[in-house]
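Hey, resending since the last one bounced:
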Amino acid sequence: NAVGSMAALLKDAIKPNLVQTLEHTGALVHGGPFANIAHGCNSVMATRTALKLADVAITEAGFGADLGAEKFFDIKCRKAGIHPDAVVLVATVRALKYNGGVPKDQLSEENLEALKKGIVNLEKHIENIQKYHVPVVVTLNSFLTDTEAEYEFIRNFCEERGCEFALSEVWAKGGDGGIELAEKVIN
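The structure tokens again:
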């Protein structure tokens, strides 16, 4: 019994919403919360508009490479005739250690053994993306508790699998913290 209310809320969702980031770049928001729940992507209209307005367009295909990215490639890209030039796979040291069995209250401690166990999750995501023959750039959203040894382990892991690696410090440095990642994606 919420159809009328939902229609009122979503009446403007049919039009892409151009917003401005804190650093004055444009971002198109189109597709509602979590985009379309079925595939976790923004609309084809928003992507095509972005491709016409800029030299580089970035779209988020959420829910990981085991669901969101596959649906992005298999549904959105195939039906829209869009061919991505690269994929950015985002992870965190904390998530990889958690996948390796570390309790939440111990994620701030360096633990290379847990990282070795948990990185199989990232490996599967890399394998999934590589099936689409698109270059993969793995980036880590950094945390203050991450260590250089953990970064180095993940960097080597990615490079051994033919992936570029870039650390993202956007949370702390804004756009300057994403320059390394942006350069890898452009290349």
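The chain has a mean pLDDT of 88.

Sorry for the duplicate.
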